[in-house]
Amino acid sequence: MRITAEQGDITTARVDAIVNAANSSLLGGGGVDGAIHAAAGPRLLEACRELRRTELPDGLPVGDAVATPGFDLPARWVVHTVGPNRHAGETDPALLSSCFTRALDVAAEVGARTVAVPAVSAGVYGWAPDDVASVAVKAVAAWDEAHPGELDEVRFVLFSAPVLAAFERAMATARRR
């Protein structure tokens, strides 16, 4: 599996699935979540409301993931994951790692071969980009080792140059090991 990183807008990524840094309500929010909901159109919110009505009445737990169609996005699927909120005391790196591995599990389950992933929890949830990058790169590499050949590419699509630099550092460190 190829693991790459680039600065860009995840809503325009031409991949099978994009990962949404959602909140547990799944009903939209700010940052990546708000951008994905806006780009996907109103049917995404309808699909998320249906998930809340049926499978997830209490919301999506931190570290877990669920898929919906991509609707008006170029990606066929949106895989929603809820990152830990450092400001709320959610500081366990295992929870953050779970966001990435569960998102890849769900992407593979729906048949995706290419996945675009943001820096989950690096924005308003207060995690340092270097910490997110380190956890994300290790989680994705470990997932690939455990599931060889299931995905062709994981592309980290990052919103700013400093976050991209953090991911590039983490990827360089992982290659040296």
TrEMBL record:
It holds the Pfam family Macro. Residues 1-175 form the Macro domain. PROSITE patterns: MACRO. NCBIfam families: PRK00431.1-6 (NF001664). This is Appr-1-p processing domain protein. The lineage of its organism: Bacteria, Bacillati, Actinomycetota, Actinomycetes, Micrococcales.
